[in-house]
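Ticket #4471: structure export looks truncated?
Reporter: QA, pipeline team
Priority: medium

Steps to reproduce: submit the single chain below to the structure queue and open the exported record.
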Amino acid sequence: RNNHPTVKPTALMRYLCRLVTPPRGVVLDPFMGSGSTGKAAALEGFAFIGIEREESYLEIARARIGSAAR
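Actual output as written to the record:
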């Protein structure tokens, strides 16, 4: 269940990942929240590094990114 207040649209984040990340690049999100950027990066085939200080959001992000990476 995603209760983060600023969830971003996956399609938008996928577009932004493609726009600014070189082939075989790494996407860095220093304020990961619920993992919208990480999910998009996984769907686009990019490596991802995310940083989040709130444990409750980290659990949501892991689940979202993990399901997209399969």
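Status: closed, not a bug. The export was complete when the record was re-opened. Leaving a note from the reviewer for reference: The chain has a mean pLDDT of 93.
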